[in-house]
Every structure is written in C-alpha cells, then in structure tokens.
Amino acid sequence: MVKKQHKVVLPPALPPEVPDEEIELSDEDVKFVQENKEYAGFVSKLDTHSITKHVSRVADADEALLESIYEKRLKRKLENKVEANTELEVDPVDALPVKTLDGQLYYRRVEKKQNEVEEESTVKDSSIAKLSKPEKRAKLKKSRKDAKKLTKEIEQKTPQAEVLDEVRKDLKAEETAEKKKYRLAELGTALLADPESNIKNVKEMLDMLKGGDISIVMLALKSLLAVFKDIIPGYRIRLPTEKEMEMKVSKAVKKMRFYELTLLSTYKEYVKRLVALHQKRLYKRVAVRCLCTLLAAVPHFNFSETLLAYVVNNIGSQDDFIR
C-alpha cells in the first residue's frame, strides 16, 4: 500500500505588527481593566512563547518542509507583484477582452517602461516613511492655515466679496433691530404690569434713543410715551429735603421714594430728548406729537411748563401735521 502524504495546511497570515509606540489605549479600557483586575489576571499568566510558536508553525510538521513552503509562497507573491508593476492594463474601450472558460474577462496588457517602474518604486519608498504624531499635527495645522489663507485671497479677489459683506452687515443690522424691538416690548409690558418693581426698565428704554436706527428711535419714543401716560401719578412729585433724607423711614416709604425719584429723573430725561429731537427734521413730527400728548394727558405733572413752551412755539409751524 502506498502511504498517503498528508497535505500541510499553513496557518493564515498574521496581521502586520504594530509598534508599541503607536498603540493607543483609551481611558475607558484602562478604567475597565483596573476595575476588573480579578477577572483579567489570567492574561499575565498566558504562555506567549508557546502560543506564538503554535500560531506561526503548524503542529507536528517538519520544520524544513514548512520553511520551503513559506519560501515558495513568498517567492510567488513577489513574482506576482513584479508582474503587476511591469504590466499596464489597457482601457476596455481600446481593446477587446478575452473570456476564459471560468467566465472571467482578461484584457490586453502592455509592458511598462523601465523609467515608469523606477518612478513608481521611488514614490512608494518615499510614502513608506511614516510621520510622527507631532509632525502629523504640524502638517495638518499648516494645511488648514493654507486653506484659510487661500479662501481669504479668493474672497478678496472676487467682486462678489464686497456684495457678500454688505449683505452680511444688512442681515446683522436687521437681526439687531428685531432684537431691540422685542426688548422694547418686554420692557414696556413689565413696566405696565408692575411699575414700582420695574421702574429701572425706563433707563434701558431711554438708552435705545441713542442709536442711529430711525425706526428703533421712533418706536422707543412712542413706547415711552405710552408708559409715562400710564404710570405717572395724579399728583406732582416733590423732592424730599435734606432733613427728610436723613430721617429713618420704613421700607415701604423708601421703596416709594426710590420709585418717585427714578420716575421723575427718567421723565425729565425723556422730555429733554423730545426737545432735542423735535429740532431734527426726521423726528420733528413724532417728537412734537409726543410733547402735545403728554401735555394733554398729564398737565398737572412736573415739567408741564417746558411742554407748554415748546407746544406753543410750534403752533405757527408751516407743517400742517405739526400745526
């Protein structure tokens, strides 16, 4: 009887070795191992030498035979690699394919020139050199800077850049105006709901008169007019004397005194703004209308003489709306 030879089956190729410096452990992995030391202790007791030998070699096989098989496999891989590098596949459009019995298509191949093969090999060799982590970060940072610089240069060169800047400014101005309008509505609503607790809101509304947006200034003038008409008391506010200020008073009196003083100072500032704005052509009609409305609504309150003087001065105006 002829003794059958057992075919030696080589183990699968191992994955490429990774240097210890490139292995990165996450904090979660380290934490898990530290918390479960009693379960992970067996790893330190493993016989890595025998495991490596068993994986890299076939058990109960001739070492010389294995060496020859490995050498043949390596030689075959190198030959295939050289053939692939020295042959150039032709575009399917330019050459008719040949169909084999197993159904695969093969196209005509042209040998590459020696110079092309050498160039490719040099490129591959240069790409093999790996960069360290700091070098990679520096390279990435530099590429980002170059991209930003290029984008800025393109925007500066293109004629649409100025138009885009103008559109952005307009959008920002519109957003700011909308926010101010909502803020005016919030402040006015809070004042009308509880004047004593929210009397400080009047100062913020007065600050909006300093802006250059005409629509916001006019809206602030009208909002303050509605607020003052509603919260001004039915009596004239008298400033306390020095002796009265030194006297001890209750919390309720302090609160009322603070409210009246703040109301009087903000109302005085509002009247000053109306007087200043009524001299400007853009705001003249709105300012005069506010002066007249205040005089008609609260003629008993402080600074009514100032209101009356400016209303009388505008009686002879040539503008029918103001007159």
TrEMBL record:
Residues 1-21 are annotated as: Disordered. InterPro entries: Noc3_N (IPR011501), Nucleolar_cplx-assoc_3 (IPR016903). Residues 180-270 form the Nucleolar complex-associated protein 3 N-terminal domain. Pfam families: NOC3p. GO terms for cellular component: nucleolus. It comes from the Eukaryota. GO terms for molecular function: chromatin binding. GO terms for biological process: DNA replication initiation. This is Nucleolar complex-associated protein 3 N-terminal domain-containing protein. It comes from Genlisea aurea.
